[in-house]
Amino acid sequence: MVRVLLLFGGLCLAGLMTLTVFFRFSDGSDVFSYFNELPEVDTTFQRGFRSDTLLKINQLRKPHSVETVKVDEDIQQFVYNYVNGHPKPSEIDLEDVFDTLQNKFPGAQYLAANLVTGSSREELVEVLNQWDAVGNPDFNSITTGVFVTGRKLGALGVMARRIPKFSLEAANTVGGRFFNQCPHCRHVHALALDKKSRTLILTCPDCEKPFDVLAADTSGYIRRATEFMSGFSLPETDLYREAQSGEEKVLSLWQQVADRCKYELDQNANDAREAWKLPEETWDQKAGDCEDTAILLADALISKGFPARVAIGWNGNIGQHAWCVVKIGSGQYVLESTLQGTLDHKALVSIVDAAPFYQPEQLFDRENLYFSAGAPQNSGEDYFADSVWSPLAIKRPALAVRKEESDKSTELE
Ligand SMILES: [Zn+2]
To answer: In angstroms, what is the span from residue 180 Cα to ligand 1's centroid?
Structure first.
């Protein structure tokens, strides 16, 4: 329960916990119950009880314009089986209900359960109806399982909302709430994603490690950072052909980018949100900001066979920043892709010399996102070792729209 509800409101959690505990231990005996004739709890009874509860709850929700609840048939079947299979239903452990249920339905990220008793069917419906969770808009289904305990009736009530599995396609079309399995700790958690979001670093609420880097492209479509590396190649220059060493080759490619692309903040000045450009867009528009030129340069370097990555992180002078890193032989260099003018060997700063100013937090290339594997303060001392940066491969989807978008931006020029 804690891991479920903490995400979307501590207050709500506190309320539910209190109430759940109260009802669990409020099984006070009632003298009159001993004279009660208990009904037979068969399938017909269960179904009738369930629709009574549903009706009452919706009568409560409608006047407040809260989405009505329905029966989730899969969870209903689960609750019946759980109650029937339990040796002592009056002692059901609600934590176990959560764990077993979420194991079976990972999308059931909003959950509340309640164990109540009553002397009659009417009282049972009434008690269940007083539960805080029944008015909570986070839930959109109710399921119940009734059982006989001693001379009383008991019921397990489960309120839930199942949310879809996170995918970029769903994030772009509907936005909203999703469930996701953390690639680091394997825990399933809920996440909310506004489709109007721009740069997003998604972090697991359980292990607190980032697990995805997303950004909106210039048409507002949310892509994974790796997808911005489109396989771009720079036109080959004489300078590149005549270069004698790896360093000279890298410098000539970097010079091409610096000569052509001026540093410019997002063109869409009336939109405060940040958009990332594809390399061909930055090249065609002859301008970009730090991540645009870092992506262009890294992609172009990879096309010429140099291991290169884009780093997102913190720069002591600039703040939140993106830059390019390249490996030449055994040397690793920070390429500050926003630099203009003539770039000579002095511009090629080794990562060790750059470390006091450049603190990388996430890296990416065409195939992988990379997350700090060890102590974050050492992550700037090596940008390519797996022991420092764990790769997280995420399948690259075939993006047919890419070409079209690129053409559109060329026309805008
Ligand atoms: Zn995790």
So the answer is: 10
Ligand 1 centroid distance, CA of 99 (Å): 17
User: How far away, in angstroms, is 101 Cα from ligand 1 center?
Assistant: 20
Is-contact 82 97, C-beta < 8 A? yes
* CB 85, CB 104: distance < 8 Å: no
C-alpha 208 – ligand 1 centre gap (Å): 6
- Residues carrying CATH 3.40.33.10, the chain: 2-162
Distance from the alpha carbon of residue 209 to the mean position of ligand 1, in angstroms: 6
CATH number assigned to the domain with residue range 211-412, chosen from the 4 options 1.10.10, 2.30.110, 3.30.1120, 3.10.620: 3.10.620
Phi-psi region of 319 (alpha: psi -120 to 50; beta: other; left: phi over 0): left
pLDDT at 11 > cutoff 50: no
Question: The whole model's pTM is what?
Answer: 0.74
The predicted pLDDT at position 406 comes to: 34
What is the rounded average pLDDT for all residues in the chain? 84
Pick the CATH number of 2-162 from 3.40.50.1400, 3.40.33.10, 3.30.1360.120, 3.40.50.2000: 3.40.33.10
Count of C-beta atoms within a 10 Å radius of residue 362: 22
Instruction: Name residue, tokens 């009553």.
Output: 118
Gap from CA of 211 to ligand 1 centroid (Å): 8
